[in-house]
Amino acid sequence: xxxxxxxxxxxxxxxxxxxxxxxxxxxxxxxxxxxxxxxxxxxxxxxxxxxxxxxxxxxxxxxxxxxxxxxxxxxxxxxxxxxxxxxxxxxxxxxxxxxxxxxxxxxxxxxxxxxxxxxxxxxxxxxxxxxxxxxxxxxxxxxxxxxxxxxxxxxxxxxxxxxxxxxxxxxxxxxxxxxxxxxxxxxxxxxxxxxxxxxxxxxxxxxxxxxxxxxxxxxxxxxxxxxxxxxxxxxxxxx
Length: 239
Ligand code: PGA
Fold this sequence. Notes:
Elements: E1 2-6, H1 13-27, E2 34-38, H2 41-51, E3 57-60, H3 77-83, E4 87-90, H4 93-98, H5 103-115, E5 119-124, H6 128-132, H7 136-150, E6 157-161, H8 175-188, E7 193-196, H9 201-208, E8 215-218, H10 225-238
Parallel strand pairs: 1-2, 1-8, 2-3, 3-4, 4-5, 5-6, 6-7, 7-8
Helix pairs in contact: 1-2, 1-10, 5-7, 7-8, 9-10
The structure holds 2-phosphoglycolic acid.
Residues 6, 162, 167-168, 196-199, 217-221 line the site of 2-phosphoglycolic acid.
């Protein structure tokens, strides 16, 4: 089981340092699960330094597919490797919604990251209007197709199912809704599957107990070290 905290555009380098120090303490003897944090680029180095030897992985929130080049605002897998980052998230719905990310660019980012020897959390998920129109499965199939084609099953690939209507809204998918989507995704690509969307310490246990849910991608509840640690503890009980 993997519990990954996506900090989004929160925490400066000094805040990352303080957070990681407290996380090491709060996480104490939580065992039996993998834990990761995903700071903004400028805070990666501090997080990696503070978490060295803790077993907690540090991921970026996005990465480009080219080795280098004229791509203002992007960073490469080589840059992450030099920092000793474990990997990167790709295709988060906020990238898709606000920054023009497409199914194909997500797959290109995922492939380059895997090829560079790094780990990938590739995100998929439907909008509320798509769920209401019974298009959830069609959307997931469409988003996954290029990832399946360009990467396929790989030991360093994880898929995160994040229904867009559940992200940052407090509207969590029910355990049954999460399980249904995860089972559908597993039929397309059999890799570890994370659920994301308003996961909190008090709903993590039930969500993580679903047979096809192998972890969580956590936004809001990952920003406070004690809260994130209790969420990890709740997940470790059912791992
Ligand atoms: P949330 O975000 O936990 O704040 O809903 C999840 C995510 O966007 O990864």
